[in-house]
Write a structure and sequence with these properties.
CATH topology of one domain: Immunoglobulin-like
Distance between the termini: 106 Å
Strand content: 35-45%
Radius of gyration: 35 Å
Structural class: mainly beta
Number of strands: 9
Bound molecules: copper (II) ion
Strand order of the largest sheet: 2-1-4-7
Helix content: under 10%
CATH architecture of one domain: Sandwich
């Protein structure tokens, strides 16, 4: 008798090529129409630096108040005509100039991005109490 090899029955696994057509229904992504960029003179204005001189005295700022525009680049020129070190801080906006020694001039650049009136002061001990305070006014 011829040997018969048992034919292994191949279990046919019918892979259902499931046409899982993912119903791409869903919500179409909404694309917002982008506003065309304005390339006006305001762009040029933003790149300019305006210099403002503040004289530091024992114990006062001159002028006391500084008025700037929001977003405007400002370079403060701090001229210490006093006999002790002074500085210029606006805590509400995290502005802090370097300390300026008597007879020295320091430059301090900043851009205020918040509209309002903010107290400025010299943070050397006791100077604010003696009158070394002022205002930074930021206009829109
Ligand atoms: Cu001072």
């Amino acid at each position: 008798m011829p040997k018969r090899r048992p034919v292994a029955a191949l279990a046919a696994i019918l892979a259902l090529s499931a046409l899982l057509t993912a119903c791409g229904g869903g919500g179409g992504s909404q694309q917002q129409a982008s506003t065309p960029a304005q390339q006006s003179s305001s762009a040029q204005q933003a790149q300019q630096v305006r210099e403002i001189t503040v004289v530091l005295k024992d114990f006062a700022f001159e002028p006391e108040d500084i008025v700037v525009k929001r977003g405007e680049r400002i370079r403060l020129v701090l001229d210490n005509q006093g006999t002790v070190p002074h500085d210029w801080h606006v805590d509400a906006l995290n502005l802090a100039s370097p300390k300026v020694q008597p007879g020295q001039t320091a430059r301090f650049e900043f851009t205020a991005d918040q509209v309002g009136e903010f107290e400025s002061k010299c943070v050397e001990p006791g100077h604010d109490v003696l009158g070394m305070v002022g205002k930074l006014v930021v206009e829109d």
